[in-house]
């Protein structure tokens, strides 16, 4: 495995801190704070901060620092619904060519998620990310795969920042729905697999709306 660069380490560290709620929406981060936090020089810190701005995590505010970007409920709902279109469409495309090896890999990922009781948001996100990106990769759409990776990054960060209680409930259902998708594929039932995949992606939506009594 290729060694992580200093820039990548700083990027990952800041991203996880935002995801886990250490840094909240509208908090200001400075280069000096991050240099001290990660014990590295200015260059990798600046590069990581610029990259986080490009990815929509931070906003550069001249002479102040980098602000953690606040997002709206509408943005979260839009991403969740768009993910349904992308992922269900990808599953239908890949279904005719799925192999036994593919299904075994999906089952292994789902079982690993079920067996792990870790409640750390970034770790739960990583397991969810692994299942969905591997499943989508099976349709061999490289552009779509990259877009999905970015969407899951955004979706998970937004949910974990603002709706941690909903995320915890979603994590409880994640493993169950993932296993149901795999079981349906094992039975060659594409319609059932698509139903469970959609339920998994949207599992958090009702919790969010109920918790905040908001409509979009």
Task: Please name the defining characteristics of this protein.
2 domains, 216 residues, 3 strands, mainly alpha, Four Helix Bundle (Hemerythrin (Met), subunit A), 73% helix, Arc Repressor Mutant, subunit A, 5% strand, 3-stranded antiparallel sheet, globular
Description:
About 75% of the residues lie in helices and about 5% in strands. The longest helix has 23 residues, at about 165-185. β2 and β3 (about 65-70) form a beta hairpin. The chain has two domains: about 5-70, Arc Repressor Mutant, subunit A (Orthogonal Bundle); about 75-210, Up-down Bundle (Four Helix Bundle (Hemerythrin (Met), subunit A)), CATH 1.20.120.530. The chain has helices at about 5-20, 30-40, 40-55, 75-95, 100-115, 120-135, 140-160, 165-185, 190-210, and strands at about 30, 60, 65-70. It is mostly helical and about 220 residues long. The mean pLDDT is about 85. It has a three-stranded antiparallel beta sheet with strand order 1-3-2.
User: What structural class should be given to the helix and strand makeup?
Assistant: mainly alpha
Q: Main beta sheet: strand number and arrangement? A: 3 strands, antiparallel
**How many structural domains?**
2
Taking the alpha carbons of the first and last residues, their distance comes to: 44 Å
User: Shape from CA axes?
Assistant: globular
Helix percent band = over 70%
* CATH homologous group name of the largest domain: GntR ligand-binding domain-like
